[in-house]
Design a protein that fits this description.
This is YceI family protein. It holds the Pfam family YceI. This protein is 4% helix and 54% strand. By secondary structure, the protein is mainly beta. The chain has a single domain, classed as Lipid/polyisoprenoid-binding, YceI-like (Lipocalin, Beta Barrel), CATH 2.40.128.110. The protein has an 8-stranded antiparallel β-barrel. A hairpin with a 3-residue loop joins strand 2 and strand 3.
Length: 186
Amino acid sequence: MSDTAIPLSELTGSYTIDPAHTRIGFSARHAMITKVRGAFNDFTGTAYLDGDDPTKSSASVTIQAVSIDTRNEQRDGHLRTNDFLDAPNFPEITFSSTGVERLGDTTYRLIGDLTIKGVPRPISVDFEFEGAARDPYGNVRVGFEGSVVISRKEYGMTWNATLETGGVLVSDKVTLEIEVSAVKDA
């Protein structure tokens, strides 16, 4: 956090994730030869940043499962069914942090519970602090980027189809890609 134009101590406080400048995305292998990328378009989140001791920071996010978007309505419809997210019965995907570790000058590991289809699992997401700035409206804004690979089977998403070549249609491993812009609360 040392490369920021705003002193670290001024970053301490509560933040709200800016959905217009944040992406919660994912990628998964399709037919073992290419990746399908998508994102969730409806989510809310908050964070508390401690500029003096970043390990005392925290974050929580709630994603509306029905907002999944892979730019293909037929695929999105299938992803909303019980084969995958079961959005009618489990409308929210949630993340709640349980700890933060400092890995380097601008790198942090956010530890917490990710709940999909009612199944909570511990995950660790490594984030790079991209900086802080005061926007044209006078708001303090921070940016983080991170990713983590999860197993969809661990969340009860076991649907698949076998290919003639011996592989499967959808990989078990899914990479979550997170680019966050958050605004300090007044």
